[in-house]
Amino acid sequence: MTILTRFVTGAVAAFAISLPAAATEYRIAVGDGAGGTQEALGNAFIAALEEQSGGEMTGKLFLNGQLGDEQDTVTAAATGTLDFSILAINNITPFSPSVGTLTLPYVILSQEDAETLTQGEIGQEMIEQTIEDAGVRIIGWAYSGFRVLTNSKKPVSTVDDLQGLVIRVPKNEIMIETYKSWGVNPTPMAWGETFAALQQKVVDGQDNPYMTVYAMKFDEVQKYITNLHYIFSIEPLIVSEALFESLSEEEQQQVLAAGEAATKASSEFLKAEEAKIREELVSRGMEITDPADGEKEFIELATTAVWPKFYDQIGGKDVLDNVLNALGREPAK
After folding, report:
1. 2 pLDDT exceeds 90?
2. Do residues 269 and 5 lie in contact, with contact meaning Cβ atoms separated by under 8 Å?
3. For the whole model, what pTM was predicted?
4. 148-230+282-313: CATH class
């Protein structure tokens, strides 16, 4: 039994329906390959959508960026040429900057933090802002874990160890500035180009959650993992707002309920599978290193240098302070 088939649990797993011939099938873009969080969220959403709609609505996943790079799918959904997309939250940030608050380094410190923010008042505010800014609606959240650093050259445990490495990052200003705070000038690159760039040694490393490292088979081109905790990766499921508004009120509620069910399933998937995937990557030859001194140097450099640079972009320091307050933490200095 594969990791993915173990994922769909409870009522969703037990539900099976023969779809009517007239069922509407929606296209769902997925940036990652098979076996990871994005595919798992997508399959849980499809199963729940079929259940909620009595088989009147279903979906089909297009893995590995078949329908375009993740940022491209936001544009496609906004213009109504794509139905749904599952993508890393940092790829929505260029379209809706306030969402970038969740990608500031060391804001989210645990899976519980991620769930508190996305499923609470903060998450609802970001959903509304994304509709306004980007023309897409977030209806579900996948939780993929912390973006660990991988590279093909050497073990990395300190900021000094990073020096000289060529690191791929998404085309995301916050992530670029975070690496710069550590003394590294990273290489921004589209997700669809990353595996080939690692394989051809154009770049030495990248960062992504264990789930994505596994799904994308990065163990074939990377040797070393560093357990960084600077960003907890959240993967929203978005729907074209034009499509959503074209649905009946009943259908809208069915879509939203399916997204909620998929979100809960994703939470359980990460809790159940991340440790197993980590062990699997080690068995394939990857070596894991923890940052020295509890990651203190990484944290101090990133929060001091990066947070203030983005106060204006995310809507002001108060926006970050509200997020920290929701997590029971002190305001930013």
Report:
1. no
2. no
3. 0.88
4. alpha beta
The answer to whether domain 3-144+234-272 and domain 148-230+282-313 are alike in fold is yes
Instruction: Give mean pLDDT, residues 30-49.
Output: 94
| CATH fold for domain 3-144+234-272 | D-Maltodextrin-Binding Protein; domain 2 (3.40.190)
* pLDDT surpassing 50 at residue 8: no
Look at residue 331 and give its three-state secondary structure: coil
Ramachandran quadrant class, 54 (left: phi over 0; alpha: psi -120 to 50; beta: rest)? left
Q: What is the DSSP letter of 202?
A: S
For residue 207, give the nearest of 103, 92, 111, 68 by alpha carbon. Answer: 103
CA-only gyration radius of the chain, Å: 19
Q: Which residue would you say has higher pLDDT here, 136 or 15? A: 136
One-letter amino acid at 120 equals G
> Which helix or strand (DSSP H or E) is residue 257 part of?
helix 249-283
Q: Residue ranges of the alpha helices (H) in 83-240?
A: 111-118, 121-134, 159-162, 173-181, 194-199, 210-215
Q: Report pLDDT for 21.
A: 59
Q: What angle do CA 27, 31, 35 make, to 5 degrees?
A: 95
Let me know: does 166 contact 194? Beta carbons within 8 Å.
no
Question: Facing residues of 240 across strands?
Answer: 136
- Say if CB 327 and CB 113 are below 8 A apart: yes
Residue the block writes with tokens 């990871």:
36
- Both tokens of 287, joined, read 């070596």
Q: How far apart are CA 318 and CA 314, in angstroms?
A: 9
